[in-house]
Amino acid sequence: MAEEQQPPWSGILKRRLVNYKTDERSEEEKKAEETELFTKYYTEWRGGKEQEKSYKNIPRFYYRLPGEDEVLLQKLREESRAVFLQRKSRELLDNEELQNLWFLLDKHQVPPVSGDEAMISYEAYLQVGERAGPKCKKFFTARVYAKLLHNDPYGRISIMQFFNYVMRKVWLHQTRIGLSLYDVAGQGYLRESDLENYILELIPTLPQLDGLEKSFYSFYVCTAVRKFFFFLDPLRTGKIKIQDILACSFLDDLLELRDEELSKESQESNWFSAPSALRVYGQYLNLDKDHNGMLSKEELSRYGTATLTPVFLDRVFQEYLTYDGEMDYKTYLDFVLALENRKEPAALQYIFKLLDMENRGYLNVFSLNFFFRAIQEQMKVHSQEPVSFQDVKDEIFDMVKPKDPYKITLQDLVNSCQGDTVTSILIDLNGFWTYENREVLVANDNDSSNTADLDDS
């Protein structure tokens, strides 16, 4: 009876032990049988022979994009993306839900009031989270609360700051979905034509652009798109990640034009405003003396204060895209963006490429001397006493403090925060004159401010 209750493998083991004593096989044969049995039982335990080929269990992670001739697959992909984006859009809080959230937060504020701001405690914050609905659940976490917690002695957060945080998140997701609708490839980036379509359809929603003539729309769109691509596509791949567009401040500047009461100063400083776009395009037309829609080297030499050196302009026409030796509006926009934003790494990269004549990745004494010689020649033309290159060279190296005392790289210029000054000294007589007379100019500014203070008193 006891033997009958023993598990079947017990009897099998006993028989195998008996056989083992009379087994006359070699060690290699026994080892092979042992391996075969182990593989067999292990495979059965793991779920059958199909599991033996582990590559069959690797989940598919690559899906080929449909080709241009696969029209049906392309349509299917577009429709599925549209449905997905619609579903994501429905997950966002609408105006009514945001208003309801505000009422709940206001109802649960905790005294005392901190200045003019209503505050909420963590306990009340969790209560609001339970009543606000499933769409709000992701905003009511300990992490979000801790992120907004500052110096309140009672451990509370500002209701207004929290609500602004929610609004910002909702706006970012709305904008992400809106941009994705123009992502024809569906790969998370926009090409130039995609971004042009987005901005063109955005124009009617921006009150500050109401005065623009429709005939100017194409030039406005070109002007706006160039800023995105100049700063966000430094390798000139022809596409920008949607993630990068959301992370920079350019969309904020563009959507600032929804404000009907935007001040004149804000409009002038905003690249995307109508006055700014008209200014840039107007400058281009004024430079184009022969009215052929393109700029020659001689026409571009009148840009700004007309003090850019001929050597620098030669390099511009050598390095950047031209048509029969003349510059179109798009290339001109890159030129303007570089010279108007010389503190920015992308602008410094543009100018550095021109200064680095031999494409070595650094500027040496020869490079600096080559460009500064043109400044010295211009000084002679204007009857000014030329400045010694040796002195200027020492000042440049002192300002930049490069890792290699004989070479200045682009990264050295960026790290020094003096790249705008250095490039101005080398390419623009007016820029050099401003640097050379900086102490006099500062003194004059101080005198002017003191005079103004006396007048006010």
UniProtKB/TrEMBL annotation:
The keyword Oxidoreductase does not apply. GO terms for molecular function: metal ion binding. GO terms for biological process: B cell homeostasis; cortical cytoskeleton organization; microtubule cytoskeleton organization; positive regulation of B cell differentiation; regulation of dephosphorylation; T cell homeostasis. Coiled coil: none annotated. It comes from the Eukaryota. The keyword Calcium applies. GO terms for cellular component: centrosome; cytoplasm; nucleus; spindle. It is found in: Cytoplasm; Nucleus. Keywords: Calcium, Cytoplasm, Metal-binding, Nucleus, Repeat. Its main location: cytoplasm. Residues 184-260 form the PP2A regulatory subunit B'' EF-hand domain. Pfam families: EF-hand_13. This is Serine/threonine-protein phosphatase 2A regulatory subunit B'' subunit gamma.
